[in-house]
């Protein structure tokens, strides 16, 4: 797969998740059902593309210790968020309504460590790793100085209101498109020695 695709696909899939999430809530309740499942699948697909973006940003940052730690933290965060979304999908399939989902979520989050690892601390690594990588690229002048601010805006908007996820995804897309260009300009030709 062309690694540049990930820089466009990840934000677009987050945008799809955000729009589907809003549509799912129009009846006053989110999940279970087709919208719940399809939105979560879109976000899981975005997470897969984020792994590629993190690895490419690490490469652009020079593969040093800081970029390796940032990318590793981000990927650990991706695993946590992916686990959370997988749980959401399974709970959606097992439940007849939102009340039934709440019962399952309460049981799952009552398991020691799950709440921190899957819902709170673990996912935070995804956001921190992503921001750290982009800041490193800005400091190295590999991206424009405004790029980390767009990424930060993308990360903060859902904390203000989750219905702002689509707007955050657009900010992320605007910050990632130049990164896709950087990847294209710095990619090693396929026949070049490693």
From TrEMBL:
This protein's source sits in the domain of life called Bacteria
Species this chain originates from: Streptosporangium album
List membrane-spanning regions. Answer: 34-55, 75-96, 116-138
In Swiss-Prot or TrEMBL terms, this protein is called: DUF4386 domain-containing protein
Keyword annotations for this protein, in alphabetical order, are:
Membrane, Transmembrane, Transmembrane helix
